[in-house]
């Protein structure tokens, strides 16, 4: 699948049919979610792809960053960032009683490395509630081997176990057919969703991640409205995505600004700005079945 080059979005897009897992971190994406950040205190950056979204390495976020919840996790764009591996998520090659897990080795709030950590004495299964020690990006959680605690609440330190993709880096897969394997450096199985319907759980929104859309924690806090500056995939309000600056009239954000998805059968974009149009999200002939109507309100190139 290929997205419309006119749209170069900061975050990769997913389709309405399937969704990848959700997380509370900011999404810093490089189209594959190369590194997805954890929901409680992790954050990942976002990359701009063909729909106008910015791509970049996940920036370290200082505690107290303006507009971002203190416990927010940024989701990094799948294409950006460099990971530091001390073990293999694919092979789970740690010593007995340990598992390979992702964490933030630089003290920030975005996953950027792997390390071996003790497996909980009574581990939580994929899909179950889980807990973390210190923060959502510490790497220390109660999930079973092959899973990580995702979308962690900064106050309760509770989240949900999501699976790492299995198979191989060249051919990643998710055992659950309702999920997509997303990410670049760290690949997770997340639920798919439709950006026009926004049917994700409370606190999450449907964001573009690579060639599909996934439910990811909304880490925008008080910001994220149309025209607001954005650096990460998951900081725009539900129903909006982070697009390249030139795609949004009057955008003052260096990386991008939030703008809505739209139905190509409608004409609502002009109400935001006379020059905006609903541009198809996917290139003609490349949209997944049932998603041909998904578009983005942007300034046509």
What does this structure look like?
The protein has 301 residues and is mainly β. 0% of the residues lie in helices and 26% in strands. The chain has strands at residues 19-20, 26-28, 74-76, 98-103, 113-118, 129-131, 147-150, 158-163, 166-167, 172-173, 179-182, 188-192, 204-209, 212-217, 240-243, 257-263, 277-280, 294-298. The strands form 7 sheets. A 4-stranded antiparallel sheet has the order 15-16-18-17, with no helix packed on it. The chain has a 3-stranded antiparallel sheet with strand order 1-12-11, with no helix packed on it. Strands 6-8-7 form a 3-stranded antiparallel sheet, with no helix packed on it. A hairpin with a 7-residue loop joins strand 7 and strand 8. The two termini are 21 Å apart.
Can you summarize this structure?
It is built from no helices and 18 strands. The protein is mainly beta.
Counted by DSSP, the helix tally is: 0
Class from secondary-structure proportions: mainly beta
Q: Major beta sheet, specifics?
A: 4 strands, antiparallel
- The fraction of residues assigned to DSSP E strands is 25-35%
Shape: elongated
Strand order of the largest sheet: 15-16-18-17
Number of strands: 18
List SSEs in N-to-C order. Answer: EEEEEEEEEEEEEEEEEE
Distance between the termini: 21 Å
Q: Report the radius of gyration as a whole number of Å.
A: 18 Å
Tell me, rounded to a whole number, the average pLDDT: 77
**Which regions contain 5 or more consecutive residues with pLDDT less than 50?**
5-66, 72-81
Share in helix? under 10%
């Amino acid at each position: 699948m290929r997205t419309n080059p006119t749209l170069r979005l900061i975050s990769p897009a997913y389709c309405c049919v399937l969704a990848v897992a959700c997380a509370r971190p900011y999404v810093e994406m490089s189209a594959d979610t190369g590194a997805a950040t954890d929901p409680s205190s992790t954050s990942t950056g976002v990359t701009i792809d063909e729909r106008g979204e910015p791509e970049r390495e996940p920036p370290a976020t200082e505690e107290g960053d303006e507009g971002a919840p203190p416990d927010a996790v940024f989701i990094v764009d799948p294409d950006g960032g460099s990971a530091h591996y001390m073990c293999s998520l694919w092979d789970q090659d740690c010593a007995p009683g340990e598992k390979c897990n992702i964490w933030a080795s630089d003290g920030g709030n975005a996953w950027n490395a792997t390390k071996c950590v003790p497996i909980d004495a009574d581990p939580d299964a994929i899909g179950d509630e889980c807990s973390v020690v210190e923060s959502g990006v510490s790497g220390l959680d109660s999930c079973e081997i092959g899973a990580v605690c995702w979308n962690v609440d900064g106050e309760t330190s509770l989240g949900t176990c999501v699976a790492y993709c299995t198979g191989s880096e060249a051919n990643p897969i998710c055992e659950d057919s309702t999920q997509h394997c997303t990410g670049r450096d760290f690949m997770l199985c997340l639920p798919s969703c439709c950006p026009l319907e926004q049917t994700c759980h409370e606190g999450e929104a449907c964001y573009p991640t690579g060639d599909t859309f996934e439910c990811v924690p909304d880490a925008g806090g008080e910001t994220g409205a149309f025209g607001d500056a954005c650096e990460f995939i998951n900081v725009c309000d539900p129903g909006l995505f982070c697009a390249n600056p030139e795609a949004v009239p009057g955008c003052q954000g260096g990386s991008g600004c939030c703008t809505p998805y739209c139905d190509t059968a409608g004409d609502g974009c002009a109400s935001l700005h006379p020059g905006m149009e609903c541009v198809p999200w996917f290139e003609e002939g490349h949209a997944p079945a049932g998603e041909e109507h998904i578009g983005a309100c942007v300034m046509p190139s």
